[in-house]
């Protein structure tokens, strides 16, 4: 039964997605959260000085550990 577009459905609504989409989605969310924290940090960086620099360095180090772990687990290889 067609809906809105008038064409037949290509696939069932409950089709499964490849597991690689989930890992790439989580990686995208990690980078998106990084940007969400870096924009306000850039605004207060001048006022806070070295304290803000150290805090952002620690944040980026923790994020980098996650990226390196994903790299070693093969998240970036699409097979």
From TrEMBL:
InterPro entries: NADH_UbQ/plastoQ_OxRdtase_su3, NDAH_ubi_oxred_su3_sf
Main location: membrane
Originating organism: Stakelama pacifica
Keywords, alphabetical: Membrane, NAD, Quinone, Transmembrane, Transmembrane helix, Transport, Ubiquinone
Topology in the lipid bilayer: Multi-pass membrane protein
Annotated family: Belongs to the complex I subunit 3 family.
Protein name: NADH-quinone oxidoreductase subunit
Transmembrane stretches, start-end: 21-46, 52-71
Compartments in which it is found: Cell membrane; Membrane
Xref: Gene3D superfamilies: NADH:ubiquinone/plastoquinone oxidoreductase, chain 3 (1.20.58.1610)
GO molecular function annotations of the record: NADH dehydrogenase (ubiquinone) activity; quinone binding
Cellular component GO terms, alphabetical: NADH dehydrogenase complex; plasma membrane
């Amino acid at each position: 039964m067609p809906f809105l577009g008038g064409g037949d459905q290509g696939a069932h609504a409950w089709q499964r997605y490849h597991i690689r989409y989930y890992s790439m989605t989580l990686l995208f969310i990690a980078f998106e959260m990084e940007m969400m924290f870096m924009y306000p940090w850039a605004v207060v960086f001048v006022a806070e000085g070295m304290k803000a620099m150290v805090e952002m360095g620690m944040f980026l180090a923790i994020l980098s550990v996650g990226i390196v772990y994903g790299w070693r687990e093969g998240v970036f290889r699409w097979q």
